[in-house]
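Structural prep section.
Before we set up the soaks we want a predicted structure of the protein with iron/sulfur cluster in place, mainly to decide which crystallisation condition to try first. Input record follows.
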Amino acid sequence: MQQEAGVDGEALEVWIDQDLCTGDGICAQYAPEVFELDIDGLAYVKSPGDELLQTPGATTPVPLTLLRDVADSAKECPGDCIHVRRVSDSVEVYGPDAE
Ligand code: SF4
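Run finished without errors. Recording the tokens verbatim:
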């Protein structure tokens, strides 16, 4: 199983608010293992098993090896719609709601 997580060893997960997604595909370029554009032109997260997760608010674990790419995606996302949060308390650590 792939090692997950991030800040201070805390497990992290990521989700996308498709209502704000512009479909530019920056996230899928940064971290194609985690993000993918569907035929509807919007980005979705993928499960560790590479399945596209299309339920609104669906989350997927952030693999430790991809943390930097996922964090950069959240920073560069023009829709401000990529949310990376701690699994333990759902506090956002990267994204529009991060402190
Ligand atoms: S970077 Fe943001 S706006 Fe662009 S496709 Fe990904 S989630 Fe959508």
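Observations: The helical segments are 26-30, 67-76.
Flagged for discussion at group meeting.
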